[in-house]
Amino acid sequence: MDAIILQILNGLDKGSAYALIALGLTLIFGTLGVVNFAHGALFMLGAFVAVTLNKILTLSFTTVDETRTDFLGNPAKIETPYVEAWFGPEVGGWMIEWSVPLAILVAIPVMALIGLVMERGLIKHFYKRPHADQILVTFGLAIVLQEIVKFYYGANPIPTPAPEAFKGSFDFGALLGFDPMTIIYPYWRLVYFLFAMVVIGAVFAFLQFTTFGMVVRAGMADRETVGLLGINIDRRFTIMFAIAAIVAGLAGVMYTPILSPNYHMGMDFLVLSFVVVVVGGMGSLPGAVLSGFLLGILQSFASMSQVTSVLPGINQIIIYLVAIIVLLTRPRGLMGRKGVMEE
């Protein structure tokens, strides 16, 4: 039982990332009908917003302390971050330590702007083009973005630590009545799961309970009729593209302490997230979220040593096997609308 609980927990953080990226993908496909292969790059850009903020906050200047010497006997050189000089050691140190959560505040306007520029500058010209054209141009854009990131940040992963308060592990075993230290789980992974649930809940609440969201849902069902009512549905769909970009960016920001950002992390998550979308059902927001968590947990169980010893490499292909089975038996996906992907 403890092994089962641990694998479920292990699947939650990756499933949270899959669900958040798949949610944004489904928002774009459901509103604009665009298959956006650059969505993984938005996840990557969000992660590098956190990296950039951390680098800015840790910029420092050098002073010489005559009262101290280094190992050669020379006056010691002290590196002092600018934020500590400007705001004091306590506030400046707090800002550096909490740079990842603070990056959320920076990522929201940055990712919204990137989403707006991407949609208005490129995507809008491909609304009525075949999906193959959309895939090619957005995939090309993703490659361009990751090469830009590689040029400025290098090819190596960049560690971005979580705040000190969340660097330990939580003893689930003691909480559930098992022996202490039987089931331990990093605090930040729990934070990421809770954060994902808050973002997902906020998106669903926005679509369900606001006038803007209701108009968007109506436009997803019958865009032409909504347009005939005098509503500028295109503008609302552009805003939804920006919201999808924000969701992907925030997923990347909070994932940085779990996986050190690198230039190809967007592609790594993109392919799996597209599989998640297809399994959940193209255009189905609940399906994208549900399949994201289910496939994340399934991949976690497939990574157990007991499983990989019998079926080596099964953890690398299990999601694709599930996708094949689902598409053969139910082409629309688990919760997809009838007729979608069934022609």
From TrEMBL:
Bilayer topology annotation: Multi-pass membrane protein
Cellular component GO terms, alphabetical: plasma membrane
Transmembrane segments: 16-35, 42-64, 102-123, 190-216, 237-258, 270-298, 310-328
Tree of life domain: Bacteria
InterPro entries: ABC_transp_permease, BCAA_transport_permease
CDD domains noted in UniProt: TM_PBP1_LivH_like
Any one of the GO BP annotations: amino acid transport
Identification of the protein by name: Branched-chain amino acid ABC transporter permease
Originating species: Rhodosalinus sediminis
Upper classification of the organism: Bacteria, Pseudomonadati, Pseudomonadota, Alphaproteobacteria, Rhodobacterales
